[in-house]
Amino acid sequence: MSTEFIFRIVGAVAGSIGGGFFGNWMAHFLRVSPEGYIIVFALVGFLVGLILTPLITIRPLRHVSSRLAKMPAERLVAIVLGLFIGLVAAALLSLPLALLGSPFRQILPLVAAAVLCYLSVVILVSRQNDLRALFSGLRSPLSQSGNEPTAASQTGEQFILLDTSVIIDGRIADISKTGFVRATLLIPNFILSELQHIADSADPLRRGRGRLGLEVLTQLQNDAPVPTKITDMDVSEVRDADSKLVALARHLHCPIMTNDYNLNRVAELQGVSVLNINDLANAVKITSLPGEELKVKIIQEGRESDQGVGFLQDGTMVVVEDGRALINKTLNVTVTKVLQTSAGRMIFAKP
Q1: 15-62 pLDDT tens trace
Q2: Fewer C-beta within 10 Å: the chain N or C terminus?
Q3: How far apart are CA 206 and CA 189, in angstroms?
């Protein structure tokens, strides 16, 4: 027997009793026989209670509990703390208000409690990030002294959380073999599930990327010099994988490795460190200065009518003036300008 059904029955009985009393009062008011009025209004009260009881009791409670379950912890703490401060302030203010004459001493304390609780909640919710920073600052001396170790320092292990985009990119396997990455690579189960969903996609391109990601994970576990772990840690307050990853990174005090621009921005706004492989690739490209000579093979036409385009070994595009007639030829060129764009570094040169 469901809880909603029990509430319906209780509400129907209460509505029937209330309807009977109302019908009796109505019959006495109209000075007629009460039996018919009692029966009719009792039936109406029964139906109203049966239909409306869940709408005013259990369903609002479910909605509130669902919102509270999805609400970030810092916002929930700010709301509770705001209500507490507002009630304390209202209790202190009610003492002088009680000295006023009637009806002010009965009404004003309630109005003051409502207004002060509302203002306290609004102010603390708007400054919830400052509250989090304050509590983090109070907790950090204990963590440094060893009385309250953080999640990462309990085992002395450092972690890097991997996003789906960086796994299916594939370059993390090669980077881990170089030895530049020292921390343990951590893959949550919800990221693994998302990767498996991509690998089972009906789209051949997505399916291929997903299977490549699973192969990369196998390489990381078997061949990489750094340990790679799958964790069951989850964040039940949020649903989408990106939000779960950011919340888990905040809990573990560790960075996220990703190629996703949106996740990169969201994580930085919430104070989580981000390791972007695209930024790393741009940083390790060969630096060329105007006047230096390079050896490059022209492989295609450029955007302008007389330009040819070639690429260095690290993928840097080289645009060669008067190079259209030299396609499929390797030649020495002199760098004239280096342009850094969001897509990477571009070199302009001439033969």
Answers
A1: 889 888 888 888 888 888 888 888 888 888 888 888 888 777 777 777
A2: N
A3: 20
Vertex 92 angle, CA 91 and 94, to 5°: 65
Place of tokens 């789906």: 164
DSSP-derived 3-state class of residue 303: coil
| All domains in the chain, ordered by first residue | 3-61 (no CATH), 159-282 (3.40.50.1010), 285-350 (2.40.50.140)
The strand pair at 293-301 and 330-341 is best described as antiparallel
How far is the C-alpha of 247 from the C-alpha of 41, rounded, in Å?
A: 55
The residue type found at 141 is P
What are the beta bridge partners of residue 160? Answer: 185
Entry pTM: 0.45
Residue type, 303: R
Centroid of chain to Cα 351: 51
Burial class of residue 52 (count of CB atoms within 10 Å of its CB; 0-12, 13-18, 19+): middle
- Closest C-alpha among 272, 233, 229, 235 to residue 250: 272
253-272 tens-digit pLDDT: 888 988 888 888 888 888 88
Radius of gyration of the chain (CA): 34
> Which residues have a Cβ under 8 Å from the Cβ of 104 and sit 6 or more positions away?
97
DSSP string, 224-265: -SS-EEEE----TT--SHHHHHHHHHHHHT--EEE--HHHHH
